[in-house]
Amino acid sequence: MKKNNFIKYGIFAGALVLGVSCTNLDEQILDATEISKADPDAVLTSAYNGLRQFEGQDGIFAVQEVSTDFVIVPTRAGDWGDGGAWLQDHFHTWDANSREINTAWRQMLSSVYNCDLALGIQGIPASKKAQAQFLKAYYYYNAIDMFGQVPYREAGSSPDDFPKVWTSPEATAKIIALLEEALPNLPAKNTSDPSIASKDAAHFLLAKIYLNKAVFDSPTHTGFNANNVANMNKVIANVDAISGATTLASDYWDNFKPTNHTSPELIFTAKNINGVDMGAIRTRWYMGNHYNQVPSGWNGFSVLQEYYEKFDPSDRRIKNNDPAIIAAFGSPLGLRKGQQFDKGGITPLTTRAQNGSLPLDFQSDVANLPADGKIISQSWLERWGIRPQKYIPDVSNMDKPENDYVLFRYADALLMKAEAIARGGSSTSTVVSIAAQLQARQGITTVVNLSTLANIDKARATELWEEGWRRNDMIRFGTYTTARATMKNTDAYRVLLPLPTTALLNPNIKQNPGY
């Protein structure tokens, strides 16, 4: 194959063939005959493997969480410098060559490509085809959310041709159509394995799309706080269509423990199996933990004080101090603030000797964070920042753990329904009844009033922290480009990310406004 032809295809496919990174520009791309004879199970597995990319701390996660009011990754002397990549994300100073943006683009479009391989298999069983359609819709949803436009190939088109491009409104309509076509052939939810795409997962994703449709139908994604009643009624209908096999877990933390695949609340996950090299879910405890904690971490991601203050200090969602947690890890899991302890919860931890062996007392006072995000003060170098830890480490295997990575869960669906009601949708349920369901396991007595959009925004922030939805929520509520304590850039166009420079080799793609 000619090199320029491969490049044209690679712009769309993320330079992946059957999920394997390709470094040889002369390698042949599978033609239609080869695809039609491929093993459906193997190709579908490649399509599912794209979900692993949500588990790492970079790419999609960095875009969706580090760019918000939730976390910052400060540079600590030489640690976490990375050419300024993490601070670009948080300060909204990225450009078309920024690392995390390029990573997120490749991650989503390579995953779409693997779905298309599965859909091109002749005689693929209806259930497997429906799963590939669902996965493709999910990957496209994320691409549209971040970039506002996506390349696609028409069936039978030549790999010599550049991919065409859907605008955000066009892609939104295509995603809805994909899901509606897939729904009848998707299996019911597997209550012991929520990693299999199901009817419940499709209804959840449809609800998410209709909740954000006013934003997505605006080419510049500026349609926030739009109360389209028809869309809101579809949100409610899809949440109500989620089966009785999906209910809230009695304990919030059941959703994040090593055996979380048994939680009735989980609708869709990326599967991890103890001892098997799967996704990078281990980053969820290593990325914030200090070097001297259990497990020893990388001392990076830090929660901002303004976000922490959204919670009641006794909220169980940020303070899991169960005896087993204290015995294994020393301090409560959640949003870890204040003095930290060694296993057993008795011996106080300190910073490393070369930095004075100061008390390991996590704080997030903005006054102690330089405006450029680069900490050089010895007294704050290791201990600045409240540390997030939502997943309970699998102590039997810290690096290849059992925990499934949570993509969709029922609490989110209930909050989507409450928001749809607040935006004018009709339901036999009330926001009071929804709040009561969620309130029962929070460990606090103050009932959250979900009748206002501001309170729903806060409820989503406190329920879904670190689950990859914060940027999406802030855009929908119109707060993403509002100045805050550690982010002063109010460029409205940054609700959309720039298209990577390499993507612009396709003449059908035009850079997003402002870049």
TrEMBL record:
Cited Gene3D superfamilies: 1.25.40.390
Family: Belongs to the SusD family.
Intracellular or extracellular location(s): Cell outer membrane
InterPro entries registered for this protein in UniProt: SusD-like_N, SusD_RagB_dom, TPR-like_helical_dom_sf
GO cellular component: cell outer membrane
Domain RagB/SusD as annotated: residue spans: 264-515
Keyword terms: Cell outer membrane, Membrane, Signal
Protein name per Swiss-Prot or TrEMBL: Starch-binding associating with outer membrane
Residue intervals of the SusD-like N-terminal domain: 37-211
Superkingdom assignment: Bacteria
Pfam families: SusD-like_3, SusD_RagB
UniProt entry tagged with the keyword Transport: no
